[in-house]
Specification:
Chitobiase, domain 2, 5-stranded mixed sheet, 8-stranded parallel β-barrel, alpha/beta, 18 helices, homodimer
Chain lengths: 519, 519
């Protein structure tokens, strides 16, 4: 991947008025115009130098003498519908168009990006802006001429952040969304609430955050949520929010003790994976209705077509020790699994009623006997080996296995008194490990349509705004590349860390499956 | 360790003019006066709340009604010499007095700290300020009454930072020195230069940094060095600077190619542990004299009695492939080891000539045939198992073994193409792992006086100012506690992670070997 020093160089003209205009739409959507402005601003202000000895200064005279590009033209393919980037970004999974073609000639003539959607144009802009470096007042590329014809292998390329174990400000989230868009990540899975805190202020249920947020500053108002969703959308990112149920809900007992079993029960290890214990009383019709209302009220704040009801780590001991739950089970003659199924029917039907596709963690199909629509999307987290079992049940899959994609692993345990202090999911998941993930391992050809993609995840028991950037990046770009590129490069060779490494260390970043002209 | 809610509470009087005056010195040293001011400011401004549900708000009325302390008196023991904290902090290892007694009554009468040095008073102040929390406008403690009689088990309790692989600003270093002083770390081992960059601007040798720093902003001027040394000193921290020789010096070839063998030689893996290759021509008398001058000029900027000449990972292939070195060896009839010994004699004698005690990495006594004064201090890094061999050669030891104390391990490898991406010193060294280190393992009683202490270390190939705080803290406090407390608590029981954990999660921090009155 090392570029010969004799490779063609090309400069960007200092004040190229024509940079990035849309050729064939009389009224370009505002968010596309803003995206073009951001790209222009990055090119002008970023001053990114090559990560090589001397920062590229040995190329100084070649750069000064290079031909200058004066304009970039974005074009929608004939007949394309002109929608905003945000409207394209929240279309149902599998129906979004993210492909684009980019051509950057070396003779100074016009560069072009073409696509059949504004979302595709935006992905092309993102690639375009990553071709350039800065040196002595000039913005230059080593990549001209280049033609890239690019499209993602998988429709779901995500990143999950937990905002319950620690709170992250709106600006922390926006900074993360910026970085996600640069890696063409298109799904923000917002694990918004958990047993530790409830930071979402939901219309009709504001008391949950008032009593369940860490403090008054650790709350996302409905305006904040709108702001985040919009910031994501114009960057091509759909926000899949999760309210985890019926487990991981201890904090709801602060405002609604009547709906929570085994709240703060001790020893916590008997009733939960980590303190504090507490789960929604899934056997109670009142609790199921309360939950359905909470979820639909939340879902209405998010334009995404998907919504996650969680469903991981339901602790049976908690319900066995809860007199109210036992009374209902006895009175109705239901088993625990039947009651759980009833709870899920109530919440999922409510969400489906407002047009949302439910998303659940793997236990809902692998450990419990739940009747779920096969439209439901299932997230695999416990082990990469479990994807095959989910596929065998004909559910769509998002890969998020802890053995490849958990960003919090390997930094030590925070509970218990293990003298080694290792974490349950040791070791640290290096970018290399994540990069070797095979989305189709043990998935038959006839099931391959079920694999929507995947994501890396940050659980935040041991992370906060102080280490967010350094624990997430550059590692989370690893799965973004896996699910954009797919299992193999365009020449049929498998992806490998040796050819990927230069992308992380300063050689211009070009997607591996892009068609690159011979130079 | 959970404190009963009925424990005695005590408040600090809001504007207690008398807080922290020195009773029995007519002219307290300025740095002690400043330390007292800092403690007062922390107590007033930190607003540290307990890390418990509700942040301690359930204690609100008890705190409001608690007795108030109105003064803290610091006293030097009769007959003590009054020196500045900094002057005490740079005394030879083993001759500093850091012990102190602290008494905080619960009836509102005067608190006291006594010691036989200003350094001891400063350690007591540090403990004192860590007894307090904030709630509703009040600063309060759960620890009164308390009597602490405390002193360190080992004279060397350090932290090493590499400022060559990545540069850290003066303010990054000061922030780190603050945190070190809070953990009573008393040695900053500054691994200032390496093959990747040379950020120290040394009088008489400024061209090395001019050509060898990453850029003009990544240089520590002599004023910066003075500032850092002084900032450390008044916080009870001695700065042990290291100029690593003769290996890890590739960058010197930028300004002095005549002194560097195998500079930038490829493939680097044949000549160095990581790129770029390059080592000082240790067989050349001119290079040995150049090096001795560089080291003594550097040493004069640092008032410490110790100076590290490095000495790790000398690569023999590099010298075998270097025609100049081979020519000298042939002309003089020396072996490689004899030449290396001659180089070390030249540099160490120059340092000893200006009153410095040399410090070296373990290879200098375990792998090479070097004649070293037994005053030399040897740092163990390759394995904790190697300490015994160093002791057997009757050298003083600083423990810094990679298997317990390397803070960079377990975050993946940055060179090579290993698909797992694991680091050579996996796994991540948790605070628990570091905390279980036994300084006297395999050291006989007759050798125990050789163990000076130890430190955690951060090599910065994969760290920068962006993740400095999160990769260092709280882990580096783990060895600080090991070497302050020693192998066992005062009651003779071994230290263990279960009793230490609360110190990290919000229960007031009291040194384990402090004598604490029954409450």
């Amino acid at each position: 991947m090392a570029l010969p020093s004799s490779s063609q160089k090309l400069r960007i003209k200092e004040s190229s008025k024509g940079m990035g205009y849309l050729a064939n739409a009389s009224h370009p959507p505002n968010d596309l115009r803003e995206a073009i402005s951001r790209t222009s601003a990055y090119l002008k202000n970023d001053k990114l130098q090559r990560l090589v000895v001397g920062r590229g200064s040995s190329d100084s005279s070649a750069v000064q003498q290079a031909k200058q590009i004066s304009s970039l033209v974005l074009s929608l393919e004939h007949g394309s519908t002109v929608r905003s980037i945000m409207d394209e970004a929240i279309l149902p999974l599998g129906t979004r168009s993210e492909e684009y073609s980019l051509h950057l000639p070396s003779d100074g003539s016009t560069a072009t990006i073409t696509a059949n959607s504004t979302l595709g144009l935006f992905r092309g802009l993102t690639s375009f802006e990553q071709l350039w470096f800065y040196l002595d007042g000039q913005v230059y590329t080593l990549e001209a001429p280049i033609t890239i014809a690019d499209s993602p292998a998988f429709p779901y390329r995500g990143f999950m952040l937990d905002t319950s174990r620690n709170f992250f400000s709106v600006s922390d989230l926006k900074r993360t969304l910026d970085a996600m868009s640069w890696a063409k990540i298109n799904q923000f899975h917002w694990h918004s609430t958990d047993s530790q805190s409830f930071p979402l202020s939901i219309p009709g249920f504001t008391e949950i955050a008032t009593k369940g947020a860490y403090d008054g500053t650790a709350i996302y108002s409905d305006k904040d949520i709108e702001d985040i969703v919009s910031y994501a959308g114009v960057r091509g990112i759909d926000v899949l929010v999760e309210i985890d149920t019926p487990g991981h809900t201890a904090i709801i007992s602060e405002s609604h003790p009547e709906h929570v079993a085994c709240a703060q029960a001790t020893p916590w290890a008997d009733f939960a994976g980590e303190p504090p214990a507490g789960q929604l009383r899934m056997a109670s019709p009142a609790t199921a209705n309360f939950t359905a209302s909470l979820l639909t009220s939340t879902a209405k704040l998010f334009p995404s077509k998907t919504f996650s009801t969680g469903g991981d780590e339901v602790n049976i001991n908690c319900y066995q020790a809860d007199p109210e739950t036992q009374q209902i089970l006895n009175a109705t003659g239901q088993t625990m699994e039947q009651a759980l199924n009833g709870f899920m029917q109530t919440t999922h039907q409510a969400l489906e009623g407002i047009g949302k596709t439910p998303v659940v963690w793997e236990e809902m199909v692998l450990e419990h006997n739940i009747t779920l629509s096969n439209e439901t999307i299932v997230m695999v987290w416990i082990s990469s080996a479990n994807a095959a079992a989910v596929a065998a049940k004909n559910f769509r899959i998002v890969h998020g296995p802890s053995d490849f994609f958990y960003l919090d692993c390997g930094a030590g345990e925070w509970i218990g008194a293990d003298p080694t202090g290792n974490s349950w999911c040791d070791p640290f998941k290096t970018w290399q490990k994540s990069y070797t993930f095979d989305p189709m391992a043990n998935i038959s050809a006839s099931q391959s349509h079920l694999v929507l993609g995947g994501q890396q995840l940050l659980w935040t028991e041991q992370s906060s705004p102080t280490n967010l950037d350094s624990i997430v990046w550059p590692r989370a770009a690893s799965s973004a590349e896996v699910f954009w590129t797919g299992p193999t490069l365009q020449d049929g060779s498998p992806r490998n860390v040796e050819t990927a490494l230069p992308s992380l260390t300063g050689v211009p970043f070009v997607r591996d499956n892009a068609m690159v002209e011979q130079r």
